[in-house]
Write a structure and sequence with these properties.
32 strands; 5-stranded parallel beta sheet; globular; 688 residues
């Protein structure tokens, strides 16, 4: 296939100061949950982006000095020669594919707690720790500012020596340099505070000194916010930021533009749609001749082209779309648009940074596994035999297992009890705001339909006898899980004793099946993710009064990890949902629910007509155990392997189900060390 000429503009080379990007696809700095702790995993992850066609591939936030230490959140660092060697692993792999490597130099200020280095944090003035830990940053004096400038210059030189082509001055996202720019926080009375010119002074000095340090070897980029906030209606308030960009307009070689509200910049698809930043930064190109990049969870090539043609950006910036599909540019270039694995905007990738663990992706199960497991997002080892495989259940695990096994060349039979594939993905994507999650199903079913060696059987609920009759060589049970109605979960480890009548107690499965309660309703959320609040939204859309009760200290606590908790709370408040945090459901008699404070035990009665329990899911593993018992106790046909995968093994997030299915397919009929199945990226000390 050949590229559609409409997209030619995306593959034009673009000059960035002394270097040239081979196309307009720009992987902006994004976290990996790997940082300096796992340099080989980082190198392979970033190198895969370059192989996939991203013209520029950047690091994550990269500390220039031990006084910017963010553990337990892994970050990159450029403190010494060892860091130069570590980063060179990445730049070499990026350069191997003809792409540019960028590094985002970072000083955290009051955002840094320095729990690892135990250095005292510094900021524009005395400030409390930004994430609420019992520490403060001390005010920087002029000697500190001189030191900061020296640290930044030395880090830029180390970046150059590590092979980077673009070096960032990072002046946004509530870190140190952004605080110097902020008139509310910058209360200094010297030449670095007060007037706009003074507040911009440090950023100007760092741009100029970085350019002088790296010379014509590297370009210098600035990451900057286009606005100072939003009004009550969510409209951009540009404030002084236009003037700031105008003052610095021609100094850097590239402007990487984002916005003040991080939860909007990288908002989940439930609240924020593609290309949502255009209203904030549409003026930037009019005040600078230098190339501009911004993000917008771009997955549509037509949207990308429109952004460039209308003069909004010069580069298509991406973090999440490059995670979901590292080969997105190459697929557009080769005319394979239908094969793009589109980001669903769930922000599971972001939980890697927020939990200090390797990044993962709902759509791309190979993310972070490039080095330690040798997984490639577009390549998979061929089958090792002519074995047949029966997969029971076409949810996310079953679909991914089938797709990957089909790509390996196995003859796969996929049996689904329902009328359509997708399992929980199909059901959940019909809930408010989750429509883009259907991409998990769509990508896999579309790929499966191209494979003559894969047979899909819908409306086919398999029994023990049905499975035995197939006589497949391998059997994978992917029959998912079901929400339980008894209230057992994280808080109540045993079922709630007084919970009835049964016809007034519901689960998320009941709601998704169209069995809706009358009102008023209590939703009991001991799951702490999205399910309870989207059900609340669905019921409020039908004018049913809703009270949401959770033992958690906040609503949808896991949403803090995905950068959506505040938006969830705001949505529930707008919908006039009554909220009780720190409370557990203790009993329900059909007319009243009794809830108790998890701290004091104090009880209260709520008049409700029904309860929806969002607490625990139980694996639908009956068929698996029937088969295992049969094979353990009977003679005759016996498969080479019987496995359960996805939620049938252990209910979890959709990303875990997809990963489970993919891993099953990768490892089938291969040698895997059961005690140590993956390489570990760790430092080994050499003998002196």
């Amino acid at each position: 296939m050949t590229r559609d000429p409409r997209y030619d503009i995306l593959f034009e080379p673009v000059r960035i100061g002394p270097v040239t990007a081979r196309n307009r696809f720009y992987q902006v700095p994004h976290c990996t949950g790997l940082g300096w702790l796992r340099p080989r995993m980082v190198a392979a992850l970033r190198g895969m982006k370059a192989e996939g066609g991203w013209g520029v591939v950047c690091t994550e936030y990269c500390s220039i000095h031990p006084s910017s230490d963010d553990l337990p959140h892994p970050y990159a660092s450029l403190w010494d020669k060892g860091d130069i060697r570590a980063h060179a692993l990445m730049t070499e792999q990026v350069h191997e594919h003809g792409s540019l490597a960028g590094v985002e130099l970072w000083m955290g200020g009051a955002r840094s707690t320095n729990l690892f280095s135990r250095e005292v944090a510094m900021d524009v003035t005395h400030l409390p720790n930004s994430i609420g830990l019992p520490y403060q940053a001390r005010a920087m004096d002029k000697a500190d500012i001189r030191e900061l400038r020296r640290w930044h210059r030395n880090a830029a030189l180390r970046a150059r020596d590590a092979g980077f082509d673009i070096v960032y001055v990072y002046a946004t996202h509530h870190y140190l340099l952004a605080h110097f720019l902020n008139p509310q926080l910058n209360t200094r009375s010297d030449e670095y505070g007060g007037s706009l010119e003074n507040r911009v002074r440090l950023v100007r000095e760092l741009i100029e000194e970085t350019k002088e340090a790296v010379g014509d070897r590297c370009a210098v980029a600035v990451r900057f916010s286009a606005n100072e906030g939003e009004d009550d209606a969510g409209n951009p308030v540009i404030g002084e930021h236009r003037e700031m960009i105008e003052m610095l307009a021609e100094l850097p070689d590239l402007w990487d533009i984002n916005i003040k509200d991080y939860s909007r910049e990288m908002g989940v698809s439930r609240f924020i749609k593609e290309a949502s930043l255009e209203a904030y930064m549409s003026y930037v190109k009019s005040v600078t001749s230098k190339p501009v990049v911004t993000v917008g969870r771009f997955t549509s090539p037509d949207t990308m082209v429109s952004q460039v043609q209308r003069g909004i950006v010069d580069f298509i910036g991406a973090a999440r779309p490059s995670i979901a599909d590292p080969f997105l540019p190459k697929k557009i270039e080769e005319g394979r648009i239908d094969e793009i694995r589109e980001c669903i905007g769930c922000n599971i990738c972001y939980t890697g940074d927020s939990t200090g663990t390797p990044i993962r992706c709902t759509q791309n199960p190979t993310m972070s596994e490039e080095w330690r497991r040798g997984w490639h997002p577009e390549k998979i080892a061929p089958k090792t035999s002519d074995s047949t495989v029966l997969v029971v259940g076409a949810g996310p695990a079953g679909l991914e297992a089938t797709r990957a096994l089909g790509r390996r060349g196995y003859h796969v039979m996929l049996a689904e009890a329902g009328l359509a594939p997708g399992g929980r993905v199909t059901r959940e994507s019909e809930l408010p705001g989750l429509g883009e999650w259907a991409r998990v199903r769509n990508y896999r079913t579309q790929d499966i339909q191209t494979m003559p060696n894969v047979d899909l059987y819908l409306n086919n609920r398999m029994t023990l006898e049905d499975v035995l009759a197939v006589e497949a060589d391998h059997i994978a049970i992917a029959t998912g899980a079901s929400w339980q109605a008894d209230g057992r979960g994280l808080h109540h480890r045993t079922p709630i004793a007084q919970l009835g009548p049964a016809e007034r107690v519901f689960t998320p499965d009941d709601i998704m099946n169209g069995r809706l309660p009358g009102g008023p309703i209590l939703i009991y959320d001991d799951d702490h993710y999205y399910m309870a609040n989207v059900i609340a939204e669905l019921l409020r859309d039908r004018n049913i009064p809703v009270t949401l009760v959770t033992p958690g200290s906040v609503v949808s606590g896991w949403g803090e990890r995905t950068s959506e908790q505040s938006q969830i709370r705001r949505r529930l408040m707008d919908l006039e949902v009554d909220i009780f945090t720190g409370h557990a459901l203790d009993r329900f008699d059909g007319d009243h629910a009794e809830i108790s404070c998890v701290y004091s035990g104090k009880c209260r009665q709520l008049p409700v007509q029904a309860v929806v329990n969002v607490t625990l899911r139980a694996p639908n593993d009956g068929l698996f155990y029937q088969l295992r018992h049969h094979f353990d106790s009977s003679e005759g046909y016996r498969p080479k392997s019987l496995r359960r995968i996805g939620d049938c093994e252990a209910p979890a997030i959709i990303a875990a189900a997809v990963y489970s299915g993919h891993r099953y397919a990768r490892e089938l009929e291969t040698e895997v060390d059961a005690d140590n199945p993956a390489k570990y990226d760790r430092v080994f000390f050499e003998d002196d």
